[in-house]
User: Which sequence fits this backbone?
């Protein structure tokens, strides 16, 4: 693993934010399907409530999770949190284009900046965990999310798992995915290098489950998988 910056948000500068919508859909085969299914899983978990307040952690970039949820549930409102200004601005532009700014509060910063008594009906953490170095940082963000969730509230967690070097076939297929979209051998090497920079994914699905249990969540149900990527729904465990 390469050294992770002390502030992972530093990786998501203006250059990376500007290409994120295109590059993420190549790096993650099924990107939009994952977001759509995440919305469906949350809606199925929350039930028929006419309204809900959703905490979206790491919302910067495409804001696709908000777009998918908002399209499915017109009564939902969103708190979008991201520490990267360029990524949050990219999300703002997408939300504006989809007429969703009036349903979304944008917060530049971290969960710790939110009022301690802010409470939400559900949360998402998509594409974040593998950018945090070490299990302690991963547990801390999950615990912070839990602190802002109502009892029994659902959480969607999605991101890369497996140590990249431990899965050479998946890593090679990942390179082929870029080649499939027209990248040369040198470009594939560069793109994989950027993806791997500073990444520290949980090393297995069991490791993801343990992180969730340690942070006070119940057993997780996996509903999507694509090469290194997995997506799960869990719920806040009892007090």
Assistant:
């Amino acid at each position: 693993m390469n050294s992770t910056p002390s502030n992972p948000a530093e990786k998501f500068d203006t250059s990376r934010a500007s290409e994120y919508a295109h590059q993420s859909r190549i790096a993650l085969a099924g990107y939009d399907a994952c977001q759509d299914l995440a919305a469906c899983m949350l809606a199925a978990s929350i039930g028929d409530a006419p309204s809900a307040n959703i905490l979206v952690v790491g919302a910067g970039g495409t804001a696709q999770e908000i777009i998918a949820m908002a399209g499915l549930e017109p009564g939902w409102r969103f708190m979008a949190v991201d520490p990267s200004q360029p990524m949050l601005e990219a999300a703002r532009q997408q939300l504006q284009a989809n007429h969703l700014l009036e349903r979304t509060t944008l917060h530049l910063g971290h969960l710790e900046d939110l009022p301690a008594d802010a409470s939400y009906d559900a949360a998402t953490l998509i594409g974040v965990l593998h950018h945090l170095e070490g299990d302690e940082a991963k547990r801390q963000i999950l615990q912070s999310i839990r602190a802002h969730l109502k009892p029994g509230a659902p959480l969607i967690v999605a991101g890369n798992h497996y140590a990249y070097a431990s899965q050479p076939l998946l890593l090679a297929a990942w390179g082929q995915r870029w080649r499939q979209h027209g990248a040369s051998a040198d470009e594939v090497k560069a793109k994989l290098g950027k993806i791997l920079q500073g990444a520290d994914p949980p090393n297995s699905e069991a490791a993801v489950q343990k992180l969730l249990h340690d942070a006070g969540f119940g057993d997780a149900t996996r509903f999507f998988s694509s090469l290194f990527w997995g997506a799960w729904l869990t719920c806040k465990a009892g007090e």
Observations:
- Strands lie at 52-57, 76-82, 104-108, 122-126, 154-160, 221-226, 229-235.
